[in-house]
Specification:
The complex is a heterotrimer of chains A (about 280), B (about 130) and C (about 500).
Chain A: H1 2-19, H2 32-35, H3 38-49, H4 54-62, H5 64-85, E1 95-100, E2 106-110, E3 122-125, H6 134-156, H7 165-182, H8 185-191, H9 194-217, H10 229-232, H11 236-267
Antiparallel strand pairs in A: 1-2, 1-3
Chain B: H1 2-30, H2 34-55, H3 86-116, H4 121-130
Helix pairs in contact in B: 1-2, 2-3
Chain C: H1 5-26, H2 31-56, E1 59-62, E2 73-76, H3 78-97, H4 99-105, H5 110-129, H6 133-152, H7 158-187, H8 192-198, H9 206-223, H10 231-238, H11 241-266, H12 269-272, H13 276-298, H14 303-323, H15 327-358, H16 369-372, H17 374-388, H18 394-409, H19 412-438, H20 462-480, H21 482-489
Antiparallel strand pairs in C: 1-2
Helix pairs in contact in C: 1-2, 1-5, 2-3, 2-5, 3-5, 3-11, 3-15, 3-20, 5-6, 5-11, 6-7, 7-9, 7-10, 9-11, 10-14, 11-14, 11-15, 13-14, 13-19, 14-15, 14-19, 15-17, 15-18, 15-20, 17-19, 17-20, 18-19, 18-20
The chains are: A mainly alpha (about 280), B mainly alpha (about 130), C mainly alpha (about 500).
């Protein structure tokens, strides 16, 4: 079986390599891909949209419909993981570990025993127990706001530097996941419940689609940001730049919420009980 | 011999991505662990993403972000100075799609594990045949 | 508003899917009515679009206000308009029938189910009317992702079947993406109309031939054509009954539509049909698909699995019909897309009702079912007659065109395969009718906790019965109006 697969793969690979002899050279400025459509984008996008970052301009304006569906794909992935994994029945575990905050003693309560209330003296820790580390908890507590600030910068400066909605959204999501890894899943769920992240994910995509529908209602084609010029009190070209910013914010919100939602469902296998 | 070297120098990036693609395909066909198959699928998709990006490269051109003072008559924007932005845009979408597929694949793998207790194909097959 | 229809037809299911997700967390009762609006409105819009296309030949819509190739273009012509109406009517019928099944199988996730089905349908509709090759890939993936999740939620071996389908489907989509990448490398554009104008100069290039093969192989994987069909029987047998009518009836047909679209629009017929070796090789492949599908269907003991192998044979009909290359063959193939979607919907709805009531679909458990579920079985019989190809059901007419095309092209093996599979379908369906009608009812059925109040009739809920009967009547109606369909719509495809 391995031999057949190896021979097939080598044959396929050599066949495709045989086809590459007619490809344009690597980095050729006169290749068809560099001559036909992209000169328009490079030379005209600043004049059309007032956004220096050409990639963001093409992503959110010229090919904005693709990006809307891309955001829908990531939303569908979050929804699919919820649909597949989430179980709402609560099965009690065989043992639970509690830590007394002032002394640091760990107590282990088996099934059926009396559990301490969720008071400030006893905090529940995960069964896959790693030793309590004050340094990690405090460092993450200090770093997470800076990470979030940087993420907001990445989203907002997508016009002038590499960045944009997807990149910033992932960094925002990563900050909450860092909170969940350094503390435990339950405390993060208390701060940012699953319901909130699901609704934020749908809201993010709705911001994108809503902007498009607003343009539709104002008489232009779908996702034609120039129609927003009277609403935003700006010139038609600046309206495109602002429209791109609005949809990037929607994308950032949706991506952040889906990253968190995905992490909640996959790390706890749907039970939302004890994460990684 | 000179011809051969020019040929290799101008096309070796495509060959590297084809080799990567075939590695991913081989992993998907041959490996028995479900997670290794999923990783093979991810390698396959990543090689296609890298292929597209290499299509957009241009010699001695900079990234497609126009600097602050360009765009006037003193610094006209010329297409030859910037790399092709379109493949980057397309591959942003493709990366997001591959991450989404990876997420759903892992969720399905967790369900498989919950049902059969193992992630090896041959053990799962023997469990199915016994039923 | 009329000009905005092409955008609205995709946006409405998308928005309703998002709203259902939010509402599902708050109050579950509103999910079903919202889903009805989300599928009923686009159905009306799609009928309106088809009528407009009959007047104007082609409708184009520039998204974002940018002319193609700078922006993305949506293009509706006769073929897309027809397939669009088929998609939304099948989806709406399945939605009405799935209400009780959703409440029985996963009640607390109803919002997520309706959301995913609406995203699936929105993706399919987008695939049908897009005019941009890369946009097609993104929509393929969104359709596929929702499909994987819906399939993976079934019982028994569904997660494993879903994972295999996921891996195969991703390989298929990646091959398609690679094909589009080759085309972009050689031309620099992604718009389908522009590609068809720029490619004729490059037809002799090896790269374009490779691009065509990659796109074709990717689509063959996604439509379960013969060598790469392994994922279909398992995935479709174990999927939840609430989604089976939707996914089984639509996925493979829309992939065949994409194959026709790419062959006729992007790589024009002068490139695709010029190599007779390729044509006959693909027709032979289709013949093998038909024969294997039919023979393997004979060996199955479960009704749903039997139907999945019949689907594999039907895919062979459509692919073979198209690659015959003559007018009748392509007409038959397009007509069969419409007919097969309707037939598969009818059969899977009937089997879904059977599984809902009896909790099983093994052939041995079906004794005497004509007495307990008469209306469902009427729908099943009509669907079976259509698959066999009995007039006046629609299946007869599409087979007629396919046979005419096969004779005209001289592919006698294709005609022989069609007749052979019709004979095997007769055996398959009459076996079910024999078990259901003539065998006495098994004793164990009488001590159900749901005592039949109607002299022994234990039918499925009203919604399911009504939709089964509607889809069965549509088969006959489609058959009677075939002339209208072919004359007014399909004729202009070529």
């Amino acid at each position: 079986m391995k031999a057949i697969a190896f021979i097939t793969v080598v044959l396929c690979g050599s066949l495709i390599m045989f086809g590459t002899f007619e490809f344009p050279d690597w980095g050729d400025p006169q290749s068809p891909a560099s001559r036909h459509l992209s000169p328009y984008f490079i030379e005209q996008s600043l004049a059309d949209t007032a956004v220096p970052n050409i990639v963001t301009a093409v992503l959110a304006d010229y090919r904005g419909f693709d990006t809307m569906f891309e955001t829908t794909v990531i939303f569908a992935a979050g929804l699919a993981c919820f649909f597949l994994l989430r179980t709402f029945t609560k099965k009690t575990r065989n043992e639970r570990l509690y830590r007394h905050s002032s002394t640091g003693i760990i107590i282990n309560i088996k099934k059926g025993g009396k559990r301490p209330d969720d008071s400030s003296k006893f905090e529940r820790i995960d069964s896959l127990w790693t030793p309590y580390d004050l340094i990690i908890k405090t460092t993450c507590r200090l770093i997470i706001p800076s990470i979030q600030l940087f993420a907001l910068y990445v989203i907002a400066h997508g016009h002038h530097s590499p960045g944009g909605g997807f990149q910033g959204g992932v960094i925002l999501g990563a900050s909450i996941i860092l909170l969940a890894i350094s503390n435990d899943l339950r405390s993060t769920l208390r701060r940012m419940s699953e319901k909130a992240s699901a609704i934020m994910a749908a809201a993010g995509v709705l911001i994108y689609v809503g902007t498009g529908i607003l343009c539709l209602l104002l008489g232009a084609a779908f996702l034609d940001y120039e129609a927003l010029a009277p609403l935003l009190q700006s010139s038609r070209i600046m309206a495109r730049s602002h429209g791109i910013l609005i949809v990037e914010m929607g994308v950032g919100l949706a991506v952040m919420a889906v990253m968190i939602w995905l992490y909640y469902n996959i790390s706890s296998a749907g039970k939302h009980d004890e994460g990684l | 011999m000179n011809d051969l070297i020019t040929l290799i120098a101008s096309k070796y990036n495509y060959w590297a991505f084809i080799i990567l693609m075939m590695l991913g395909l081989y992993a998907m066909i041959v490996k028995k662990n479900l997670v290794k198959k999923i990783i093979g699928m991810n390698i396959f998709q990543t090689s296609i993403i890298l292929f597209y990006i290499s299509v957009g490269a241009k010699e001695q051109a900079t990234i497609p972000i126009i600097e602050h003072s360009h765009g006037t008559e003193a610094h006209p924007i010329q297409a030859i100075n910037y790399i092709n932005p379109l493949p980057h845009v397309l591959m942003l979408t493709a990366i997001v799609v591959s991450v989404a597929t990876l997420g759903v694949a892992l969720a399905l793998a967790i369900r498989v594990y919950r049902q059969y207790g193992t992630l090896e194909e041959n053990e799962i097959q023997s469990q199915i045949n016994q039923l | 508003m009329n000009q905005q229809f092409p955008a609205l037809i995709i946006i409405v299911p998308l928005i309703v899917a998002l709203v259902i997700t939010i509402v599902g967390w708050l109050n579950k009762k509103w999910c079903f009515p919202l889903a009805l609006i989300g599928l009923g409105t686009p159905l009306l819009i799609s009928v309106g679009l088809l009528l407009e296309v009959l007047k104007k030949q082609v409708i184009t819509y520039h998204l974002g206000g940018w002319r193609p190739p700078m922006g993305i273009e949506y293009r509706i012509d006769h073929l897309s308009g027809l397939v669009l109406v088929v998609i939304f009517s099948v989806a709406l019928l399945n939605l009405i029938a799935s209400r009780e099944k959703v409440l029985a199988e996963f009640p607390e996730k109803a919002g997520a189910f309706y959301g995913l089905s609406l995203l699936f349908v929105a993706g399919l509709a987008g695939i049908t009317i897009t005019g941009d090759a890369f946009n097609l890939y993104v929509l393929l993936e969104i359709t596929a992702l929702s499909g994987y999740a819906l399939i993976g939620m079934g019982d028994k071996h569904a997660p494993l079947a879903g994972l295999h389908y996921l891996i195969m489907g991703t390989i298929g989509a990646s091959f398609y993406l690679l094909g589009v990448g080759f085309l972009y490398l050689m031309t620099g554009t992604l718009n389908m109309v522009e590609l068809s104008q720029m490619l004729p100069a490059l037809y002799s290039s090896r790269v374009v031939i490779f691009a065509f093969f990659f796109c074709l192989i990717g689509l063959f994987i996604k439509m379960a054509m013969f060598p790469v069909h392994g994922w279909l029987p398992n995935a479709y047998s174990y999927m939840p009954t609430a989604a089976s009518g939707l996914i089984a009836a639509l996925t493979t047909k829309v992939m065949i539509y994409v194959m026709i679209r790419i062959s006729l629009l992007v790589f024009t017929p002068s490139f695709v049909f010029v190599n007779t070796l390729l044509n006959s090789a693909l027709v032979w492949l289709a013949v093998i698909a038909i024969v294997t599908g039919s023979i393997l269907a004979l060996a199955q003991k479960s009704l749903t699995r039997m139907l999945t192998f019949i689907i594999i044979a039907e895919v062979g009909y459509m692919v073979g019909g198209f690659w015959l290359g003559n007018r009748d063959g392509i007409t038959g193939s397009v007509l069969h897309i419409v007919n097969d979607a309707a037939m598969t919907l009818c059969l899977f709805l009937a089997v879904g009702s059977i599984r809902f009531r009896l909790q099983s679909d093994r052939l041995s458990d079906l004794s005497g079912i004509f007495r307990t579920m008469p209306f469902t079985m009427i729908a099943f019989v009509v669907g079976g007659l259509s698959i066999i190809g009995v007039p006046p059901t629609c299946g007869f007419f599409s087979k007629w065109y396919l046979i005419k095309g096969g004779l005209a092209a001289g592919s006698y093996e294709f005609v022989a395969a069609l007749i052979f599979s019709s004979l095997i379908n007769i055996i398959l369906f009459f076996r079910v009718i024999e078990i259901g009608y003539f065998n006495p009812q098994t004793e164990g059925r009488n001590d159900d906790h749901t005592t039949p109040a109607n002299g022994g009739i234990n039918e499925a809920p009203l919604g399911m019965v009504v939709t089964s009967l509607i889809s069965a009547t549509s088969l006959i109606v489609l058959g009677i109006y075939t002339n209208v369909l072919v004359g007014k719509v399909i004729q202009f495809v070529l």
